[in-house]
């Protein structure tokens, strides 16, 4: 299993919370289309077919279609958006849900590396 370094983030708000993520130069975060609230000018966004992870890079088109089909069956989007810091120094991008709710931070190491909802 590939490990990531600790993510720099801060949660704001009470009933309509959003999370702001600070990205180091060259660092990328993946989100569902439509979840971005704001971003610094040095952040570049790209829409990708698939889940946007490195594990998708070696897959063929039909593998990506099958993965996207699974997301559609669960009500998720066919496409994901990647946000990459193309500037120097830390830059921020923020995400929010379209409805009221609380954001809960979970360390996947505490959950055995995965979380099934």
Explain what you see.
This protein is mainly β and 117 residues long. The protein has one domain (8-98). It has one helix at residues 61-73, and strands spanning 8-12, 18-23, 28-32, 36-39, 43-49, 79-85, 91-96. A four-stranded antiparallel β-sheet has the order 1-2-7-4, with no helix packed on it. A three-stranded antiparallel β-sheet has the order 3-6-5.
Could you give the topology of this structure?
Blueprint: E1 8-12, E2 18-23, E3 28-32, E4 36-39, E5 43-49, H1 61-73, E6 79-85, E7 91-96
Antiparallel strand pairs: 1-2, 2-7, 3-6, 4-7, 5-6
Q: Pairing-aware structural class of the strands and helices? A: mainly beta
Coarse shape: globular
Summarize the main sheet: 4 strands, antiparallel
Proportion in helices: 10-25%
Number of helices: 1
Name the strands of the widest sheet in spatial order: 1-2-7-4
- Assembly of the depicted chains: single chain
Share of residues in strands: 25-35%
The overall number of domains is 1
Round the mean pLDDT to the nearest integer and report it: 83
How many DSSP E strands?
A: 7
Secondary-structure element pattern, one letter each: EEEEEHEE
What is the CA-CA span between the terminal residues?
20 Å
Query: What Rg is obtained from the alpha carbons, in whole angstroms?
Result: 15 Å
Low-confidence spans: pLDDT under 50, at least 5 residues?
Answer: none
In short:
By secondary structure, this protein is mostly beta strands.
